[in-house]
Amino acid sequence: MMSTFTRTAFLAAASTLAIGAAAQAQVFEQVGGGDRRTVDTITVTAQQREESSQDVPLSIGAYDTDALENAGVSDIKDLISIAPGLMVTSTQSETITTARIRGIGTVGDNFGLESSVGVYIDGVFRSRNGVGFGDLGEIDRIEVLRGPQGTLFGKNTSAGVLNVVTASPEFEYGGALEATVGDYGYNRFTGSLTGPLIEDVLAFRLFAAKGERDGFQQLILDDGNGPAEVTESETQDYYTIRAQALWTPSETVEGRVIMDYSTREELCCSAVQWDYAATPAAFVNAVGGQVLQPANPEARVAYANREYEQNIDDRGISAEFDIEMPIGTLTSVTAWREWSNSRTQDIDYSTADIAYRADGNFTDLTRFSQEVRLTGIWGDLDWLVGGFLSHEELELGDAIRYGDDWEGYLGRLLTAGSVPPLGTPAGVTAVLSQIAPLAPVAAAIGVPGAQGFMPVPPPGAAIPAGTGTAQDLYDQTAESWAIFTHNTYRLTDNLALTAGLRYTHETKNVFATFDTNSPAACGALETAFGPDPVSGLVAAASAAGLPASSISGLATAAGNICLPYGRTALDQTGYDRERTDEQISGTIRLTYDFNDDIMGYAGYSRGFKAGGFNLDRSFNGPLDGALGYTDVDSGFAPEIIDAYEIGFKSQLFGNVLQLNANAFYQEVEDFQLNTFTGISFVVNSIESVESYGVEIDFAYATPIDGLDITGGYAYVNAEYGNEASTAPNLRGKQISLSPENFLTAQVIYERPLFGEVWGLASLDARYVSDYNTGSDLDPEKLQESFTLLNARVGLNHADGRWSIEAWGRNLTDEAYAQVAFDQFAQSGGFGAFMGAPRTWGVTLRTEW
Question: CA-CA distances (angstroms) from residue 542 to 150, 436, 516, 538, 551?
């Protein structure tokens, strides 16, 4: 529940905003008007109707073509430079890209979790943020809708929506060619063409792009077969094609059909050492591996013994039709999309051959959706009703295997402190020999599956290379449908009430099979102590009267010898689960027009993010001594957000200045937290998260012709609750990847120089205060505050016939972590996926 302090602060902020808006109204009436330039109005579809962004009673950032081009925005990650309160990060692969708004979002390393921030491209929902990552091509505008959008946009928009609208076909012939070259071997070539096929009836638009780039990081690659190779990672190599048709067979029918295809074959994503203690480095060095110690993230040097590959194919077709009917406008949006990726990965991020993903790692995602809306006006009522359904098939394969150095590495870890100080490479066998006498005890006390003996493998054969997960396969199906309504009723000339409801019903089925090539050491433990070898060992050691310290040490050793992807206890049973979630989400808002230039609003909204299944190995079912785990449930609860918001929007001094501000408060129930433990991913439902703050946006057409300034500020306090069920290290703390302060600004100056030649200069800046990048809030994963600066200067012809621009991004070359994490089995070693360094380039463009 909302605390007294929070409620008071929220109401105080609301009162301040309302009083301030009323006071400003009197001043603006006296100083507005004249022949001054004004701020362009951006038309948005945030409420599934075309309307000015200034008329929408919710917090929204709207960015048109000029703002996006001058900021160099070509995908959703670039958008953070001009959108306050937005965080977008990538980790193991760029397919694992996650957006957060107002501090709320989902770590995307597990495809069983869906995003809290919905990504829509041309009216079609992309079910994971990473699926929406890529070159967006010709962008007409991007709308950042903050807060729950569950009424009109449905589930998985509990934190907000990124609504991307690309350029439509036109009935006049036109086209564009663009070439960009830059450092790191960057090049991007695009071309587009539009025009009529049948005058005033059928138009087309074609767009294609091809991009390449060398890597941002130096990768020391040592596969043990000769000298180490110095190569690069974080490369780009992609192309994309989009074809559209606009059909207007009559004055009452308009249809838009879009087909697109893109593919990427890249080396991504390696990680640098973020903070690395001497002890884990010594263990890696002991098996002939290498890491950078002491850590130096700014050097951008990474280590591996296998390449990081990401291969992505993305394709789809959608059709949107608007039909004018006597009672209103009927809109139908039909879409089919298929997305697939495969990847390889050195998961220990060192040149030691400890563990890796090779073949058998893939994700295939197919989705069909259909939405129907009917909108109309009846007197003072703007009404909308609609329905939605979707069918999604997700197939995921995973295979984590041990490398040549794992047994020697683990053996030294298990016997550390002996002579020599780093232990013995035969330590796995030595520890198993100490455990073996407990095997008969386990059988005697009835440990399920215990066979009374332990075959101890010889040194070098305990954990052979290539053992581990042979192939895990997950097949998840999601069926979802919803009905909704969203209506605005004008109570008076100045006062309007908006209310909406949505009922969502979703059923998910997951069927998983597991195939383990168990190493001999883990097999020995399972033989002696059953399908749950650690619990079986603890029971036997307790029965044998061993001291607690010895039991703890043996249990830890057994857990490391028999890691989750080396255990066979799921091979015979797998998963076969189903869950159904249903939820009513909605909104209610009051809007008051103080005058023609200032509007105030206050409202409540509820967002819903579906529950799901952790698509990773889970050992939480009942035990059968012969079969292993049965009836395993890796499910987690839906995430629900209740949000309160009050604010104003204004067009001041005759629309010379647009100033918008709001205060918000959000309560999240069952926040879905995905955490990497250093060994595997674990999904927990956090009972509550509280998020509150203030957001301010402005756009100013200055007295200097051609000089425009836009910007924004967001204060976001997003904290975990203090419930006993929440881990002690999280209680009351600021959640990960959530800075308290965001500040953005963009300055664009364009003016004639001589003849028909114009000059352009733009600068955008983004500041964020410090924040923790790790789900466990380990202090070692803290990212200090930093500022990113981007700039662009150029010349262009007044009619757009040609332009040339030089640009730079991250001009001060800030080295910052997108996400820092525990390196695999290297306690005290932290890696990080870094943000892009300073880059520069030149863009040539011609339009006709």
Answer: 52, 15, 30, 6, 7
